[in-house]
Amino acid sequence: MRRARRGIAVSLLVPALGLAAVLRTVAADPPRPVPAAPSAPPPASAHFVDVTDAVGLDFRHVSSATSQKYLPETMGGGVALLDADGDGRLDLFFANGARIDDPMPPGRTAVKDSPRYWNRLYLQRPNGRFEDATEAAGLAGQGYSQGTAVGDYDGDGDDDLFVSGVFSNHLYRNEGRGRFTDVTAEAGLRSGPEDWSTSSAWFDADNDGDLDIVGIGYDTFSVIHVWWNDAILK
Ligand SMILES: [Ca+2]
Ligand SMILES: [Ca+2]
Ligand SMILES: [Ca+2]
Ligand SMILES: [Ca+2]
User: Which listed residue, 30, 99, 115, 122, has the most CB atoms within 10 A of its CB?
Assistant: First the structure.
């Protein structure tokens, strides 16, 4: 029994000694410096200034709103940044609406019968201002335009334009120095009463190294994907 009690006493003594050592250690250690909180990231420095008027961009989209509230009236027009004249500066292209009668007689389509309906190309000059070059570029367009996509479809190094719209899709080949030719027909692109495309995009659909185009069809409560590949474009 005495041996047993001694064992208990020893076993109690060891933890006690250990605790004392810990307490001595805590008491002897100097307070550790509190690490500094990581510095907060600097506030965002991005700041934008509206320079639309200052750089000469006076485009106004015309939707031709009517009391009939036709579907195209409710949609905006597309815009593209491209180097239309190959001078290394980005230029701007805007897709615009067209005249819609109120109401629209059956069988009639919207037309750009006034410059206010033209699509617009603005070339950027060395001073950063933009100049309307639509007419010289041959990009006034036809019909009610809605979307636009930039791509070098013929691989000659300059930016070409596809403009989609209400029953009217157009491919414009860049001839250089800011001049374009409508090559829709020779490229074999459909454009008719059943071809209402809103958005479009260039990409290499068949992975053969040249750009193909997809037009996103807009129809009565349905979306149709229409593909044109390079076999048609060339
Ligand atoms: Ca340019
Ligand atoms: Ca090209
Ligand atoms: Ca070209
Ligand atoms: Ca391709």
Answer: 122
CA torsion sign for 105, 109, 113, 119 is: positive
Q: Are the CB atoms for 210 and 153 separated by under 8 Å?
A: yes
pLDDT at 192 (0 to 100)? 72
Picking from 107, 205, 119, 133, the residue whose alpha carbon sits closest to that of residue 165 is: 119
Rounded to an integer, what distance in angstroms lies between the CA atom of residue 87 and that of residue 83?
Answer: 7
- Are 234 and 154 spatial neighbours (Cβ–Cβ below 8 Å)? yes
Whole-angstrom distance, CA of residue 93 vs CA of residue 59: 10
Alpha-carbon distance 174 to 218, whole Å?
Answer: 27
Q: For residue range 46-79, what is the model confidence (pLDDT) as tens digits? A: 899 999 999 999 999 999 999 999 989 988 899 9
What is the residue type of 165?
G
State how far the Cα of 219 lies from the Cα of 189, in Å rounded to an integer.
Answer: 18
Closest alpha carbon to 85 in 30, 124, 142: 124
Residues 172-229 have pLDDT tens digits of: 999 999 999 999 988 888 667 777 888 889 988 888 888 888 888 776 444 444 445 4
Q: How far is the CA of 152 from the centre of ligand 2 (A)?
A: 4
Query: How many A from CA of 234 to the centre of ligand 3?
Result: 13
Taking a C-beta distance cutoff of 8 angstroms, is the pair 215, 145 a contact?
Answer: no
The CB density around residue 158, as the number of other CB atoms within 10 Å, is 19
The model carries a pTM of 0.77
